[in-house]
Structures are given as C-alpha cells and as structure tokens.
Amino acid sequence: QSYCHRLQHDMYFLTSTSRLNEQVVDKIILQLNRVYPQILTNEEAEKFRNPKASLHTRLSGLLKHLQKKGDRHCQEFYRALQINAEELFNDLPSRKILKTPDPTEIDTDKEQYMLNDRGPVFFLACFSMAAGLALFWYCCNSETRVIGRARRILGFSPIIIGRHVRNICMLYLEDMSRN
C-alpha cells in the first residue's frame, strides 16, 4: 500500500479533535521544511503554520498538499509524525492494518510455539508412559515367559515409575504368574 493511500486512509483519524496539538503540527511542518530533500518550501511552511487559520484547516490542507505531491512526500510526513508523535503514529489505522497478519497465512513462529508449548518434562512423561505400556504389554503376552525378569526390572525401578504404579504392576505380574 502506498504512502498516499495510507495518508488518505489516516486523514480522518489525524484531523479529528485533539489528536494533534499545534506544537506537534508545527514541529512536523518545520521538519518537512528542513529535511533534505526539502518537502515544503518556505512559503508553503508559512502557509501551513499560519496561526490565524484553525488547526483542523491547516492540517487538512497540509495532508491534501502532501498527497498531491506524491508518495515520497507522504512518506516523509509519516517519518516526521513518528519522530514527533510516536504514540499517535503507532495508533494510526493504517499501521493497525499493516500489523494484522493475513488470516490465510500460517505464522510459523506461532505454529512452532503451539507444538512445543509443553516442554521437555511432558515429552519425558509421554515417553515413559509409552515405554511402560510397551513393557507391560510384552510382559502380559501369554506367549512370552519373562515374568520373573520383568518383576526384577519393575522391582528396581522406583525412580522411573511411581510407587503406586509399580505396586499395581507387581500385583498384576504376580496374578499372571499364578495362572
């Protein structure tokens, strides 16, 4: 989006009551008059700084004048606005449109965060659960006779699985060995 279109979009916001005060408008006009390349000539700067005209009229005239001059002039106005009134610059409607992402576009940073938001403890817990279930399934299979070895492994693993889970597994293994 060109700066002229952005300025046209932001014109109502900027000219509404008490958005910009006279001191800030004067600073912007002086900066546009002094910047290289000179955006406003001395006569134009005096015209837009005329204290006899209302602030709304001067600001509207300045914005229309800059739109007629072209995209470079509008860009310099935005730069002057950012320097002299940064909070207002950040609240511009055109800035809010630029900040909002395209709803069809995938935000890879957000997607990466969504996949990794649980951390390494969650991964270890899931891996331990899967390993425990695999061991449990292997031990309970009627074709294998490794219950004695499994009992030894489960007996020496109080750190890996909780005490209550270990007790339940041991009880189940003992029932399996009796059958």
Q: In this structure, how is the largest beta sheet organized?
A: none
Summed up, the helix count is 11
Gyration radius, rounded: 36 Å
Count of DSSP strands? 0
Instruction: Report mean pLDDT, rounded to a whole number.
Output: 78
In the CATH scheme, the class of the domain at 3-97 would be Mainly Alpha
**Overall morphology:** rod-shaped
Distance between the amino and carboxyl termini = 78 Å
Structural class: mainly alpha
CATH topology grouping of the domain at 3-97: Death Domain, Fas
Share of helix, binned: over 70%
Indicate the CATH architecture of the domain at 3-97.
Orthogonal Bundle
The CATH H-level homologous superfamily of the domain at 3-97 = Death Domain, Fas
SSE string, helices as H and strands as E: HHHHHHHHHHH
Indicate the proportion of strand residues.
under 5%
Kindly describe this structure:
The protein is built from eleven helices and no strands. α10 (147-155) packs antiparallel against α11 (163-178). The protein is rod-shaped and about 105 Å long. The protein has 179 residues and is mainly alpha-helical. Among the domains are: 3-97, Death Domain, Fas; 117-145. It has helices at residues 3-15, 22-34, 42-48, 55-69, 71-84, 86-90, 93-99, 108-115, 119-140, 147-155, 163-178.
Features:
about 180 residues; mainly alpha; Death Domain, Fas
What is the compact description of this entry?
The chain is an all-alpha fold. 72% of the residues lie in helices and 0% in strands.
What's the helix and strand layout?
Elements: H1 3-15, H2 22-34, H3 42-48, H4 55-69, H5 71-84, H6 86-90, H7 93-99, H8 108-115, H9 119-140, H10 147-155, H11 163-178
Helix pairs in contact: 1-4, 2-3, 2-5, 4-5, 10-11
Transmembrane segments: 120-138
Domain CARD: 38-96
Protein name: Caspase recruitment domain-containing protein 19
